[in-house]
Amino acid sequence: NWTTGNIVDEQIGRIRDQVGDARVICGLSGGVDSAVAAALVQRAVGDQLTCVFVDHGLLREGEAEQVERDFVAATGVNLYVANEQERFLSALAGVTDPEQKRKIIGREFIRAFEEAERAIIEKAKAEGEQIRFLVQGTLYPDVVESGGGEGAANIKSHHNVGGLPEDMRFELVEPLRALFKDEVRSVGRQLGLPAEIVGRQPFPGPGLGIRIIGEVTHERLELLRKADAIARHELTAAGLDDEVWQMPVVLLADVRSVGVQGDGRTYGHPIVLRPVSSEDAMTADWSRLPFDLLSRISNRITNEVEGVNRVVLDVTSKPPGTIEWE
Ligand code: XMP
Prior knowledge:
By secondary structure, the chain is α/β, with parallel strands linked by helices. It has helices at residues 4-19, 32-45, 63-75, 85-92, 98-126, 140-145, 153-160, 181-190, 195-198, 218-237, 291-304; strands at 23-28, 49-55, 78-83, 131-135, 171-173, 212-213, 249-252, 257-261, 264-273, 276-277, 285-286, 308-313. It has two domains: 4-198, HUPs (Rossmann fold); 211-313, GMP Synthetase, Chain A, domain 3, CATH 3.30.300.
């Protein structure tokens, strides 16, 4: 009888057997998988675990706080936060090509994560301890097809290759390896994690960096965060979170169109809504959201987000369109 309670107990036992009294490190991305993996390890070995959160400044509104405040409150985990917003913005300055953005974000993420690891390793050394394990939120489907996954998955291939100093070569702890996404969510609920984290829709590792079509700047991120928060709030208020697989909100930063607002002409940017329904993100269809919901989102975004004077709906299936615009 494979209940969530069994899964939790069994995994805690396994983690204790594997880790013993050694120290463990775990990266948090803001997503479900890394949060649940970390919470399981925390239950199993408590203060032997240190989590690392690299805040790249490309998360949505409230997500960094969900990790730094709510996740910590729910689990009592030791958290090391690396505030790297400036670093990512300067690395992305002037870059518009999507693949280039992805490479830069991935590269900087690994560097920032390693610097954080280095700091934690040194602190442990000073206490006469050594970090021996790295937690990965690998799921069963990742094991099978070994693709995609959330931000933290990027770290994996890196840590498996040689070339790293001896004290940075870790053994992997993968407590979600036998689980599917819905099982991971119920384990997360069982462990008392915040609903916003457990119910979070898929969100790409490069974050809002690939939802700004054009150069990523501080102002554009602020603008997109506001528009995205409105769209997500209205979708949730309409009770449609479960119907929609994910709803990227995209800023066409290099496109402008003429509008009329308040007392005059505007020349602003369009926001694209990309709600899709899907089983596995390999194929998708555009979600037939109710017109009154779309209308509410459009009115609120154009009224409340300065610089946006038009909201458009993406009605393309995948294929031919991908879910993300970049
Ligand atoms: P596409 O745009 O290829 O997206 O239809 C399929 C799914 O993957 C997510 N996605 C990513 N996830 N890093 C990730 O961790 C990425 O670089 C990335 N790109 C796309 C996307 O949100 C969708 O769920």
